[in-house]
């Protein structure tokens, strides 16, 4: 870390901790409270800038200086360079090729918010380039990619945080939920239901002209070469300003070529908290069974038979058999959130509430002092970015580490594979492979397109 020396890093992290505790920021300077010297701060870059890319950049500017931004869409890049210049008072360098970011010796860490199919290639190459990594969830497109990232983290010693922010944010409701289970407030857990909503299918999406400023071949990257597709109707609200139906911006979540639908999009949040509460962050299910589901198009031998419409699951109810005879249900029906059920009661938690008789009972019998900190492993920081920067100093892995993330994400990936093949899968959590199903095991990995192979070392 050439511009983040040990002495100033320690000073900086003390300031970050103080700022996090008081949540006091100097708006005019966009610096952590008490810090004015830019040399005390780490140097970051963000790769992939639409929506969440800007979100995590914006959230981190109080604690780090951003020297560069990268995106394959020149329009998105220019817009975010302008916003960041106003935010931090200094214009970042702009690149359409992320490799130019990794070549820079002055950048300590990269934040990755590209579509999912790009995560692993950029993350691995960033670690070999000596960068710490913050990568948006879901971390991987396949189970094999997760194992590769684990290997490279161990080999390089880089700090790697996954953007599953529910572990550090949302008013500590999710930390309270984990503490409730750990303290036995619902007795022995018997069932946990993760409500993650469904997706809608699409009409036929025709081939269309590639939007100006978009490097479509680079956007596809490791995925196979296909035509750009879009309908004229535009998306509004979050992620707006792009076609409502396409195989690119925002809608990539609806295609198995680039993502895993709601199973990995929201499953990466709620299944993560469920596994954390169950103490199952270093293991996995014994079986994944699709009880009910609808795919957005027809499939044969696990692959879509058409390529002009969305292809992920639109509705689903999946059962995962977890350790200690716990039944996990992942469903597109009902409230978005997590329902924990045990021998002595049940409660529900999501980003807006935590409710149920065991929660009401806390008025008379509160959790022991320090229960939340015990779950977290220490004082809870102001937000996910602070935890990442603290770990850059300590060289410990963050609360959202790659190992726990990959273990819970395996449940989501297996759920998708089970629906694509139309059958239950028996899983060996030690070997991390499907038992007695060679065809299913072929879906655990995916070959990158020629010219976009991962550069190792």
UniProtKB/TrEMBL annotation:
Keyword Oxidoreductase set for record: yes
Gene: iolG_15
Taxonomic path: Bacteria, Pseudomonadati, Planctomycetota, Planctomycetia, Pirellulales
Gfo/Idh/MocA-like oxidoreductase N-terminal domain sequence ranges: 85-163
Pfam families cross-referenced by the UniProt entry: GFO_IDH_MocA, GFO_IDH_MocA_C2, TAT_signal
Top enzyme category: oxidoreductase
Protein name, per record: Inositol 2-dehydrogenase
Enzyme Commission code(s) on record: 1.1.1.18
PROSITE patterns per UniProt: TAT (PS51318)
Domain Gfo/Idh/MocA-like oxidoreductase bacterial type C-terminal: 200-453
UniProt GO MF annotations: inositol 2-dehydrogenase (NAD+) activity; nucleotide binding
Keywords for the protein's UniProt record, in alphabetical order: Oxidoreductase
Protein's UniProt keywords contain Oxidoreductase: yes
């Amino acid at each position: 870390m050439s511009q983040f020396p040990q002495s100033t890093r320690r000073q900086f992290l003390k300031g970050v901790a103080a700022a996090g505790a008081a949540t006091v920021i100097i708006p005019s300077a966009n610096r952590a409270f008490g810090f004015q010297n830019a040399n005390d701060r780490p140097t970051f870059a963000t790769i992939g800038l639409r929506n969440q890319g800007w979100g995590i950049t914006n959230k981190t500017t109080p604690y780090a200086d951003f020297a560069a931004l990268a995106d394959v869409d020149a329009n998105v890049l220019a817009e975010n360079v302008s916003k960041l210049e106003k935010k931090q008072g200094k214009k970042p360098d702009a690149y359409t090729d992320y490799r130019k970011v990794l070549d820079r010796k002055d950048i300590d860490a990269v934040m990755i918010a590209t579509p999912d199919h790009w995560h692993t290639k950029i993350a691995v190459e960033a670690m070999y380039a000596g960068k710490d990594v913050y990568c948006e969830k879901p971390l991987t497109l396949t189970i094999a990619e997760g194992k590769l990232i684990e290997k490279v983290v161990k080999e390089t010693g880089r700090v790697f945080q996954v953007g599953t922010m529910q572990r550090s944010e949302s008013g500590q409701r999710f930390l309270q939920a984990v503490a409730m289970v750990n303290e036995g407030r619902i007795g022995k857990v018997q069932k946990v239901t993760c409500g993650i909503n469904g997706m809608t299918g699409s009409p036929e999406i025709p081939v269309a002209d590639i939007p100006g400023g978009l490097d479509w071949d680079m956007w596809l990257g490791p995925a196979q070469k296909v035509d750009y597709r879009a309908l004229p109707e535009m998306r509004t609200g979050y992620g707006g300003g792009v076609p409502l139906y396409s195989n690119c911006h925002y809608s990539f979540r609806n295609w198995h070529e680039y993502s895993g639908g709601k199973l990995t999009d929201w499953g990466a949040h709620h299944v993560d908290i469920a596994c954390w509460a169950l103490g199952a962050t270093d293991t996995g299910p014994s079986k994944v069974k699709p009880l009910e589901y609808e795919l957005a198009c027809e499939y044969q031998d696990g692959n879509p038979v058409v390529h002009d419409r969305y292809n992920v699951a639109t509705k689903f109810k999946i059962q995962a058999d977890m350790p200690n005879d716990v039944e996990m249900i992942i469903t597109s029906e009902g409230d978005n959130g997590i329902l924990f059920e045990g021998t002595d009661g049940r409660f529900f938690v999501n980003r807006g509430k935590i409710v149920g008789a065991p929660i009401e009972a806390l008025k008379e019998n509160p959790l022991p002092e320090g229960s939340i900190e015990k779950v977290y492993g220490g004082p809870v920081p102001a937000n996910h970015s602070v935890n990442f920067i603290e770990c850059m100093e300590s060289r410990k892995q963050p609360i959202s580490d790659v190992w726990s993330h990959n273990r819970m994400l395996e449940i989501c990936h297996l759920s998708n594979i089970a629906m694509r093949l139309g059958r239950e899968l028996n899983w060996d959590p030690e070997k991390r492979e499907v038992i007695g199903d060679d065809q299913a095991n072929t879906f655990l990995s995916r070959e990158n397109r020629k010219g976009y192979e991962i550069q190792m070392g």
